Amino acid sequence: MPDDIVAAQFRKAEPLPTIYRDVATFNDSILGLRAPEAPTVLNESRLGWAVSAFEEEIQEFVEATQRGDVVEAADGLMDLITFAMGRLVEMGVPVLPVHMGVHAANMGKVRGELSKRPGSQGYDAIKPAGWTAPDHSWLLGMRPSDFAMLQRRIEVRRRAQFRVLLLGHARHGKDTVAEMLRDHYGYRFTSSSLWAAERVMLPAFARYGIHYPSAQACFEDRGNHRAFWFEQITAYNTPNKAAVARAIYAENDLYCGMRNADEFIATMRAIHPQPVVIWVDASGRGLPPEDPSSCTVTRHMADYVLSNNGTLEDLRRELDRLMDHLLGLN
Questions:
Q1: Which CATH number fits domain 3-108: 1.10.3420.10, 3.30.310.50, 3.40.50.800, 2.40.10.480?
Q2: Which of 168, 172, 115, 205 minimizes the C-alpha distance to 302?
Q3: Closest to 94 (Cα-Cα) out of 50, 133, 139, 141
Q4: 89-131: per-residue pLDDT in tens?
Q5: Distance between CA atoms of 237 and 232, rounded to whole angstroms?
């Protein structure tokens, strides 16, 4: 399933998952109707039944509206929405990613009149030149486990989100974990190194006559000047050793890449509630520890150690297990 679809669902309000969850509970508990393992269409018998029920709800809405009965009109429309959602559940379709695709396509339309739909009073939308229809082809590749994963991610997002601090040596996978937390759990994340490149390192290098064309270029060259980066960020954090952490957490849920032990201690004292500290470890793959001249945080400072000693999929499973634990889902 495309990561941008998964990530998008957590950056939006969630009325649809609430209805979807309620309808799924009704289908399961009252009807005993289980969702299929993979998305599929209704069989011919269920299709005929569904069409008849749709027509009944539409007729209820029409008659209530003609009577001027707003209560029954609202009830009819909600019945229609709930019934339609029930069929999506029955088909095994995860509603929010599909909704996001349709919504994005709709937002590409323009206001206009369609001759085949008279009576809009000007409140209709038409497809302009170059308009792109939503692409739901990813549904065809969904595995049985994907549906449960989507539901779990939605449940995770409902819960109070805690701050996270990612520690670890260079190249052990901290940025990869940060991106997973952003893409799969909705965490706001800006690379702390890129943040420091723009606000700390460009001015610091300029004082020595070194001028990068952009913060991105400075960031990409950081491996050649790790000790200097460490010194300058330490200086930025003096005398307020939590200055960087305060600035990052003011805009984000996640701080990735703190390297100074004194900054760590100050951050734990200054940031409330304290972030959950995760150490990302890839030493089992032969990656060396970082030199103390550029990193003084250590593994024992973390609340949890996340192993990055296997494949990328192994890392994702390890992170999911940890998040399940932290959120009380297992």
A1: 1.10.3420.10
A2: 168
A3: 139
A4: 899 887 777 877 788 888 888 888 877 778 877 778 888 888 8
A5: 9
